[in-house]
Amino acid sequence: MNEQQRIDVAIIGGGPAGMNAALVLGRARKTVIVIDEERPRNRVTRETHGFLTRDGVSPSEFRRIAREQISAYPSVRFVSDIAVTIEGSDGDFLMTTEQGATYRSKKVLFAMGKKDLPFDIEGLAEVYGKSAFVCPYCDGWELRDQPLVLIAKGAGAVHFAKVVSGWSDHKVICTNGPDDMTEEQREELKRHHIPVFDSPILRIDSIDGKVQHIVLEDGTNVPCTGIFFATKLVAGSELPQDLGCRVSEAGSIIVDALGKTNVPGVYSAGDAATELYQAITAAAMGSLAAVGINSELLTEAWESVK
Ligand SMILES: Cc1cc2nc3c(=O)[nH]c(=O)nc-3n(C[C@H](O)[C@H](O)[C@H](O)COP(=O)(O)OP(=O)(O)OC[C@H]3O[C@@H](n4cnc5c(N)ncnc54)[C@H](O)[C@@H]3O)c2cc1C
User: Fold this and answer.
1) N or C: which end of the chain has fewer CB within 10 A?
2) What Pfam families does UniProt report for this protein, alphabetically (predicted)?
3) Do domains 6-115+233-303 and 124-229 have the same CATH topology?
4) Hey, what CATH class is 124-229 in?
């Protein structure tokens, strides 16, 4: 496969979504290029949980095993690069990359995940993925029964408190400024004996990624061994919009059950196209999108025979 050849499928993003799509398409004997910047959102964590047969594996080991298995299918090629432009239409898309390469493909799969916006709390980056997490389904078990702080406000804080109750009864809420709650919501939290601190957070103190306490501007020290918070996410890339893909208010590409977008020949899978942020969900979406793409390619080839 060289850069000028028109390959079957270009996959942008090589996380669980892109790699599972590559595996299924490689087994379907399609020529595939996976362009991957190699900066998945979970790179800050030591372990990935909840993925059957891989529970507790590190993100880098997950990637190593996946790449090794996909290497059995020679029509799949990985390039470590960033896709920066895309144009064209179904049957002939043209991508350029940061390193100056160009690739042409019949179909495109956007699997570039989402990105965290920079944190505005001092010390949060140091504990992110080590003792501060965003998803109790991913990391709640490791923090079970521990004293936790939930950084959230408004209805989101009440929802978070309810969900995290499944893992720990020892939790307080820090709203980091005005709580944005109704009287009813405050009463609800009181009924569940969950203290709420609304003083802005001055900083988070930690040792080797393990949070020790949260220091508030009013001088309060809130000791804890874990944090859950709602990170602000943006789309991993603007390229889908450049092709005319419809995107939801949450920044997810709108797709059907097989990952098809509103633009012919363009698919999306994984975090880029959902707000259910789980590696196994992303991988499953990648697999479904690969089936959708392969079906389309097979139909086109079948119908081209006159
Ligand atoms: C702290 C943390 C802990 C988590 N823990 C768990 C857990 O325990 N269990 C679990 O199931 N899930 C967990 N998740 C969620 C899980 O990591 C994601 O749902 C999953 O990685 C999404 O896979 P993806 O393939 O859609 O995107 P990603 O894994 O984010 O991969 C996207 C890839 O696309 C690349 N990319 C982006 N733009 C471009 C471009 N323009 N050109 C080329 N490449 C590009 C990125 O660099 C990246 O390599 C966690 C997430 C975080 C943030």
Assistant:
1) C
2) Pyr_redox_2
3) yes
4) alpha beta
